[in-house]
Specification:
- The complex is a heterodimer of chains A (about 120) and B (about 280).
- Chain A is an alpha+beta fold.
- Chain A has a domain of about 60 residues.
- Chain A is about 35% helix and about 25% strand.
- In chain A, a hairpin with a 5-residue loop joins strand 3 and strand 4.
- Chain B is an alpha+beta fold and about 280 residues long.
- Chain B has two domains: about 110 residues, no CATH class; about 150 residues, Rossmann fold (3-Layer(aba) Sandwich), CATH 3.40.50.
- In chain B, about 25% of the residues lie in helices and about 35% in strands.
- The radius of gyration of chain B is 20 Å and the shape is globular.
- Classes of the chains: A alpha+beta (about 120), B alpha+beta (about 280).
- The interface between A and B is medium-sized, with 25 and 33 residues.
């Protein structure tokens, strides 16, 4: 069975607000709120760590679930997130240049000065 | 000897909203006069405009009143289009042109769009909200049409200064001492009116609270979780541009605002007692 790699899409903006992970699509301004499992996948989606490893290390200990069932659910979830443009999914590692930090900030923080 | 070609008089005025003077050049004295009346209280004579627009007036033909606004950027130049106007603006040169008929609505739309673009770059925004100053602090009352913006504005006591009953102007406050007071955003008065049809005062104050309006059987203020606050704030922010970077900036600006300014739900019955809870 081939590996599945996930990476955070650079075309979205993300913030963790009081434990709630919010994602906004830069393409169509749609706002998403991730549930706990989706948040774990988002935070771990560095493009280099295979999804099964994320499930084994981060999801299974959190929920005490059967690894095979958890992997199936995680893959479904990752593909759903990919369909919304939140994640990139590939059978090959995804280079860091194409992914973004888990809690992204603007490249140039807005100036704080009043004119 | 009499000159064969007389120079065209270039008339201008500066419309200063949110502390950002925008100079408008025209050759039409009637149009200038109309702008002076429309933006009374916001007209200055600043020679140091942040942006300068040449207005090219034309005789209107067919105008689709339902045409959508399109705001796009290419090669550092913004194009703003609606059925009744076409404008261009080049931020690096601080200049632009507006082609429209001699009416106040088209340039009003252009000004709103330009301000949203300027503010998006610096972490501020325009939003559907009434706002007022009381005891030196600004309070915002956000909501869609029918939520109560006009009602809360109409009920404001005499010691409150109305900034707007429709479109609030929010900028980050760069003053260092303000951060110690946890007041890091400033609300400015705007000439953008709603049903009250009354221009706001051209003054500003640090924002103390954002209230999300709801009408109900009693006056009460309830906390709103940060995520929900961001959702409702973004639903009320004016945004026109089809631009990925600005969308992301606006999202971060909303998150930043919610992390610094208390956001609550204000449920109220439409009488003046609601203002006893504000200020």
């Amino acid at each position: 069975m081939s590996k599945l790699y996930v990476a955070r899409n650079t075309r979205v903006a993300a913030r963790n607000l009081d434990g709630e992970m919010m994602i906004m699509s830069g393409k169509d301004s749609t706002l998403f709120t991730l549930n706990k499992t989706a948040t774990i996948i988002w935070q771990s989606a560095d493009g280099a760590t295979p999804l099964d490893e994320i499930v084994e290390r981060r999801i299974c200990p959190e929920y005490e679930v059967d690894p095979a069932a958890a992997m199936q659910d995680a893959e479904t979830l990752a593909r759903e997130l990919a369909a919304h443009g939140i994640l990139d999914v590939s059978e090959n590692p995804i280079t860091p240049a194409n992914s973004q930090p888990a809690n992204s900030q603007p490249a140039n923080p807005p100036a704080g000065e009043s004119r | 000897m009499q000159a064969l070609i007389s120079p065209i008089d270039c008339l201008h005025l500066s419309i200063e909203i949110g502390g950002i003077p925008i100079r408008v050049n025209t050759t039409d004295a009637d149009f200038l006069n109309m702008l002076q009346n429309r933006y009374a209280g916001f007209v200055g004579s600043s020679e140091h405009a942040a942006i300068e627009f040449d207005v090219d007036l034309f005789t209107p033909g067919f105008v689709d009143p339902d045409a959508d606004v399109r705001v796009t950027q290419r090669a550092g130049k913004w194009a703003l289009e609606r059925g009744d106007f076409r404008a261009e603006w080049e931020p690096a040169r601080r200049t632009g042109t507006i082609r429209q008929s001699a009416n106040p609505y088209s340039i009003d739309a252009v000004l709103r769009i330009v301000h949203t673009l300027v503010l998006a770059q610096e972490g501020g925004f325009l939003m559907h909200a009434a706002s007022a100053i009381r005891n030196g602090k600004a309070f915002l009352f956000a909501g869609v049409s029918g939520a109560g913006k006009t009602t809360i504005s109409r009920l404001a006591p005499s010691d409150a200064t109305l900034l707007t009953d429709e479109i609030s102007y929010v900028r980050k406050d760069g003053r260092k001492d303000v951060k110690k007071q946890n007041l890091s955003y400033v609300a400015f008065g705007t000439p953008f009116t709603g049903e009250l049809a009354k221009l706001g005062e051209n003054v500003s104050a640090p924002i103390s609270a954002l209230y999300l309006l709801a009408q109900g059987p009693e006056n009460r203020i309830d906390p709103v979780a940060p995520g929900q606050a961001v959702r409702e704030l973004l639903a009320n922010v004016l945004f026109f541009a089809e631009d990925q970077e600005l969308v992301q900036r606006s999202f971060h600006a909303a998150c930043e605002f919610v992390s610094r300014v208390p956001v609550s739900r204000l449920t109220f019955v439409p009488d003046a007692r609601v203002w006893e809870m504000i200020g």
